[in-house]
# Entry
Amino acid sequence: MVLEVKLPRELWPRRGDWEGRVLAVYKKPGDRVSMGEPIAEVEIEKAVLVIESPIDGIVTGVNVRVGSLIKPGMVIASIKPLGGVAG
# Structure
């Protein structure tokens, strides 16, 4: 089982179409990640959103790069949980 880490939809106060810009990507496929550890930073208007890992696991894919524009709900990374079960 693989967990997809997405740019949250519910954290943005505006409605309608919007985009964020990826400022940093801290993990690459094959990296181990701990719950709460930053995976990426995304700038949304006047704020920077730190996207953290929701689980302990191994990064199996990263779908963004620095400078790319992303929309709410887009998959930022995929993580295979340690122990094989998503929390």
Q: What stands out?
A: The chain has a mean pLDDT of 87. The radius of gyration is 13 Å.
